[in-house]
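Minimal example, chain plus 1-O-phosphono-alpha-D-ribofuranose.
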Amino acid sequence: MSDKGRVYHLEVKRGEVANRIITVGEHSRAEEFAQCLDKDAPVFRLISKRGFLTITGKYKGVPISIVGIGMGLPMMDFFVREVRSIVDGQLAIIRFGSCGSIGAARIGSVIVQNSAFAITRNYNYFSDTEDLEPVSSDEKPYNFSKIFHADPELCKKVELELIKSFGEEHVFTGLNATCDSFYSSQGREDVNFRDYNSNLISSIHDIYPEAISLEMETFMLFHLAKSSTPLPLKDSNSKNTNNSNHSIKAAAAAMVFADRVTNDFISSDKVHDIQKVARNAVLNSLVDFDLTYVHPDDDDCVW
Ligand code: R1P
Ligand code: URA
């Protein structure tokens, strides 16, 4: 943190980020969400040198932030940890991203990711590789983590709002795989590299038959929410440290851009059509969610 109280990569300080946050990958998606902010309240905007875009304003009178973080697990880690360090009280974070579908959802549908596991390249496996075949070893080329869950209440709100906006037939809910590459660990074959991933999607179905989407950030959000230090309980004698008291509540949904079953890819016109409908649904679920304690409204806040 700088001597002015700004965190290193997002460059925001206390009072510039609200307790309720939508996080997206692209800046243009963040700006599309920002068009819904109340017109009669001030809007704060900051792009950091490292490419994080933070927009803070009000939606239906409630302070919210929209943060564009770019792509991948480390960017989610920077965002969650740095924001956590400068906001008092509980955080509700909804990721609205894009994904590939490995199940019944076709392009243009929306997937509510109620849980996630990580698929990471096992570097050790590749260190054993000689010429074209890996040396026989017990290692597997990709590691699959355990499953981490969204906050059930926030997740349900997101699901219900999306169903209200898109209709039940276009909204799917299920397990997501967060991958450390768009290519190798999502099972995209590339003649330029020996990735040993031709069976990856069938391995996912063997290990987690309920997995329906692939993307690159949601697992880290759920994992950090679960790892977040519980807020002090109002009743200080209670030993309850269960999930309900975690300082970060998280949920996620994603538009299906790539259909990995039919090999279709979405057009940019369709993306805008979905975002225009989804943004209000996601924002409504965020402002409707109760938080136990929020950053106090004071003169240092941008809202
Ligand atoms: C890959 O194209 C990117 O799209 C998905 C993946 O998670 C990855 O970040 O999400 P966003 O659309 O939010 O960036
Ligand atoms: N984002 C991903 O990570 N994968 C896809 O296939 C589409 C969007």
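The first strand starts at residue 20 and ends at 24. The domain at 20-287 is CATH 3.40.50.1580 (Rossmann fold).
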